[in-house]
Hints:
The complex is a heterotrimer. Chain B is mainly alpha-helical.
Amino acid sequence: MITEAVQGRETYLNASYGIKSWLFTKDHKRIGLLYLATITLFFFLGGAFATAIRLELLTPQGGLVSSDTYNKLFTMHGVAMIFFFLIPSIPATLGNFFLPMMIGARDLAFPRINLLSWYLLVIGGLFALFAMLVGGVDTGWTFYTPYSTTYSNTWVIATALGIFVAGFSSILTGLNFIVTVHRMRAPGMTWFRLPLFVWSHYATALIQVLGTPVLAVTIVLVFCERVFHIGIFDPALGGDPILFQHLFWFYSHPAVYIMVLPAMGVISELVSTFSRKPVFGYHFVAFASVAIAVLGFLVWGHHLFVSGQSLYAGMVFSFLSYFVAIPSAIKVFNWTATLYKGSISYATPMLYAFGFVGLFTIGGLTGLFVACLGIDVHVTDTYFVVAHFHYIMVGGAIMAYLGGLHYWWPKMTGRMYPEGWAKLSALVIFLGFNLTFFPQFILGYLGMPRRYHVYPPEFQVLHVLSTAGASVLAAGYVIPMAYFIWSLRYGKVASSNPWGATGLEWKTASPPPPHNFDETPVVTHEAYDYSTVMGEVIEVG
Amino acid sequence: MASEAHAETLALREQFDTAAQQKDASTLGMWIFLITEVMFFGGLFLAYTVYRSLYPESFGLASSTLNEIIGAANTAVLLCSSFTMVLAVRAAQLGQRRTIMLFLVLTIILGLAFLGIKGFEWTEKFHEHHVPGPTFHLEGTAMQGQAQLFFSLYFAMTGLHALHMVVGCGIMFYLLWATYRGRYSAEYYTPVDVGGLYWHFVDIIWIFLFPLLYLIDRHLK
Amino acid sequence: MGTLRLFPDQASTIAPEVDHLLYFLLAVAVFFTLGIFLSILYFAIRYRRRSDRELPHVIHGGLTLEILWSVIPFGLTMVMFTWGASVFFRESRPPDHALQIYVVGKQWMWKLQHMEGQREINELHIPLGRPVRLTMTSEDVIHSFYVPAFRTKQDVVPGRYSTTWFQPTKAGRYHLFCAEYCGTNHSRMIGWIDVMEPQDYQNWLSGGAPQGTLAESGQKLFESLACVNCHKADGTGRCPSLVGVFGNTVHLAGGGTVTANEEYIRESILRPDAKIVAGYQPVMPTFQGLVTEEGVVQLIEYIKSLGQKPGGTGR
């Protein structure tokens, strides 16, 4: 494909102007950008809470904020990051933008439902934001009963309502993706010619559709308990607080796979493009995605090992939790093997991919520790768990998200980001991340509990290291914000395929026309066939 | 058969290549939505099952105060409404506009009848002091907390179901209006089809609710 | 700032077991982490792109490799599971002769009661070398009793008892933390476990409790709450005699049986309608709100002492 000048050509960005053309758009690409703006806001909000948390934890006696305020800070950090940043992130931005293009479609199956999904996220976000502004909520993002239903005096209902509404955003996105992948693939685009990004979003959509409704009904029950005191989770009325935990984790465990599966899909694309080879073991990676989605529904009880659930239930859940580790391991090995005898580029997206594989490996391996009954008794509800999930969510998912953003930025905007600054940021983020979270493994095994802002003095050194890392990490996140905005005006104009990648999205101009393809493409090649793109000029090696 | 971008019609929106593809996609979409609804109600069914097995006596006693005649009547009403809905879809397949409207109207009437009967039943419960809250009291047991829990779940489950019925009636009204405006034909009647799917689903939820809430252990009364 | 520790004390019999399990998992984790990191580093350097014209030879995959790197990790995880489950099993089964301590957690303090009557707040004195069994409940929200040096943790739930046990192996003072978020002062719901040499513990115990042993306090409650009017020891009352009931099987109306343990006694006091003894009427009123969790514990110890040989100080 030849580089096309943006000027004079109709793209999805200039096809229509004005705020109404954005707020009432049906174009999946514009909706992807609407989501991008929304989740970026919530990311920085969650990040602000994290900054406050790490500052408070510099000294053993705290002192920057009161106990109540600290409890609200970690709660709102979790709520903002999980429900309003991580869960939507990759599927609603990169997935919305690229899934239809990757399969050769003009849009998703239900464009207006797609727009509705975005509005639901915004409305849910406004409820949550309202709660944060008028006083906050202090139940922890897990809002265990009976604390959340009977004892907390904070804005539980408003926050829960926000999450409830945002949940429907997630469900509708999942529904849209499933129908799209089933019914809108271009001729010749068989299941096993799909990019692995599509496979992982399909698997994610299965979880969104099956798991999120259970969270929704759990929130309804919490609402009824808090407002009407029906007694479902209140022992004094015959209710069982542990029932809440089962219902909550039935969604919230699969939810972590909603957060990581799309990231894995991005990594498959990056590793392939920047090795110029198909992903090693394509079928295994595809099936592993679905396996993770299915198995992820069977392991929720590993959050309840010390809750008082029966010994035998604990054993069953521990056993099954080890099963779900295997498909993830398979993927890591396959990505690594893809590098073998490849043509490895060190472009920024690939640096993020390397970071992901390394940090996800550590995060995933520490999952084996918490799945282990004997060890989990000691480390559950400590900083060990906090470190474990941040390695996966931040070291994994967020790095993949940034890698994907950099990779597809030229396609979305028609501009290249500045490669030097980008590489620097990737390095800063990697170093800052590890400095922040590695000490927390040690803190956790030493016994430092979660959600404490006052702690014994012997833990201080590790907390100081962690906070130092957090400041580096914060800087690392701010720099890309700056240069991405800069690039919109001053970045080098991008060709339609600056990376020499395969995939239908790279066959269109950068940025793409409103309908993606003037004619529905016919697919005749297998996925990741680089012999078909040998003519492309690679802009960044 | 590559397809070009085209102007949009109801039966063939611009993202689809053929009308058949659109119909397939819409139907699949509705089925997936109904599966999410199963998961949604499922949480309540699970809670009910757990507590029913924990407190069989209290729940049995509370359940026996429900009016099974009214419950059965409502079941019959809903089954008939599903029948009229099927007939509406059949009429749509044949492109018979007036017949579609007739059966949609009958479905709506039956749906509203269901809601009316439910309202009457709930009013009865209110007067018997079986509505959870400060005035709750169930005769014949000291375990008032457990009995109240039964009724909380009863009102939550039948209330959620009733809400879905209201939405269903709303959908029926929309379909009635759209049929009146001539939007549907034998070639394109997908909204009637998927509206029917939704209606049948809400009916099936009731088919599970009725025995679980009203009929189990009734002989022990 | 304090010295930097990297590892907690091992102060219980189970702690070294947990740590050995940890070492195994650490070894596996380090092996795979290094393996992946070094492979990536090596491949990225060895196969770095030298020209844009490169088109690597396509390698789609290898079934043997896939099987190898599925089965071997799976085998390792099964070892982890089995070993972890066996440690967990031992952590869940207190020995019969364990010293019994009752714990009531509430926002934001720990109340501990010894059988001999001593009450402690946020501190627990125990002797070295004997297993200790904690029976715990909460008065309000869920808490969690965590002693890092012992590697034990158990959630403390309102409305039911949960148990944990440990056998201390080293005298000293060890942190006690609440490990389940419980509101404003969660970070301050902490305390100390004082493990003493057996002789020192006896000395501490004999400092005595003015109110008498738990069982003695329970007896006073039993009388003041008028339980004694219906539960006559000779069985002539309207309700079953409680002599020797603890630990035995109870036959219920409606056909089932239940073992009369702490949970059953507590339930019978707070929700008497839940299980009726065969041959009796459901006439017992509930004492919910009339007796505290500590009171329930005292009543339980009193009932345990009925039918026991006199002079026992905990079984």
